[in-house]
TrEMBL record:
Keywords: FAD, Flavoprotein, Monooxygenase, Oxidoreductase. Belongs to the UbiH/COQ6 family. Its cofactor is FAD. Gene3D superfamilies: FAD/NAD(P)-binding domain. This is 2-octaprenyl-6-methoxyphenol hydroxylase /2-octaprenyl-3-methyl-6-methoxy-1,4-benzoquinol hydroxylase. It comes from Pseudomonas abietaniphila. The keyword Flavoprotein applies. One of its GO terms (biological process) is ubiquinone biosynthetic process. InterPro entries: FAD-bd, FAD/NAD-bd_sf, UbiH, UbiH/COQ6, UbiH/COQ6_monooxygenase. PANTHER family: 2-OCTAPRENYL-6-METHOXYPHENOL HYDROXYLASE, UBIQUINONE BIOSYNTHESIS MONOOXYGENASE COQ6, MITOCHONDRIAL. It holds the Pfam family FAD_binding_3.
Amino acid sequence: MSRFNLAIVGGGLVGASLALALQAGAKARGWKIVLIEPFAPGDTYQPSYDARSSALSFGARQIYERLGLWQQISRRAEPILQIQVSDKGRFGAARLSSMQEGVPALGYVVENAWLGQCLWQGLDKDVISWRVPAEVKHMQALPEGYRLTLSDETQLDCDLAVLADGGRSSLREQLGIGVRTTPYDQSALIANITPGEAHCGQAFERFTDEGPMALLPLPENRCALVWTRKPEEIKRLMALDDRSFLAELQGVFGYRLGALKQVGVRHTYPLSLIEAEEQVRAHLVVLGNAAHSLHPIAGQGFNLSLRDAASLAEALLASDANPGDLATLQVYRDRQRMDQKLTVGFSDQVTRLFGSQQPVITAGRNIGLLGLDLLPSAKSWFARQAMGLGTRADV
């Protein structure tokens, strides 16, 4: 029976980031860490027009800089130099600028495949071992940890199990951890777009009565589209041919980047705010989308999970206790409680405010956007939220 100090269930972006945040301290302590992941990482990065992407906040850059990874990640990270926030059919608009905020970029857009490749290559094999491809089928609580049974029927024991296996975590359900689910009655359509003009590092948040839309800059002058609408509308948009889809998108987005020229493969998924009712138990942590899944339009989901991972690593390495010690895990939970509350609240309220069609609210948000553009202190606060710097004093 193999025994590890930590078993990270899910070797995706959040799980791999946690392993990286831990590995230097783990090596000094002689800890053994295992990553269990159903999909084997590729040996090389393969560029793709249709690659899925993540928006990294400036705060995320700071975390990866501390881990010594940012120089490599930045090779294919497209800086967001300006964010334009607008409300379709109304005068209200706001513009956030990295120059005004005194930072090199408000955030960055990175293809998930590239980010994953950078993270996996940064792992120290002397400290972090992989079980790939493998899934955890069963978890049994022991007095001093958990016993994990894998898909090939092998077993391993660990002092601390970290569930980073996504928003539909079957293990979370197996362990009796409930979730609070708030449906938005919206689905998201995501795709890559080629505009007719250079995006010049501009990101666009466009709010309409039918739902919000974001267009984020990518390398090779592509843009990542996130378009949220009612599920029946998303189904209709998915059925359109490329030319008809681009025409409809153009009508909503306008000609801020000229005529839209190309759309890649379209994907869609339903949207809900999902929060786990427990995030720590003795010898157990729930992390990433398994802990909280946010609406994508504010771009805060992965960034919050990354801050959680960095904070968890900090708490574990600051303690002399066993990694599964409940008091240590509660230190982490208490430290991140306010960050999570503010970030989830910010994302949820932005979604609801700009998703409403009530005349009083639409008039109020129009005035609010105008005020935001005119008041430097309000604009700076909003920018810090977007950059992932508004909820923690130490990042």
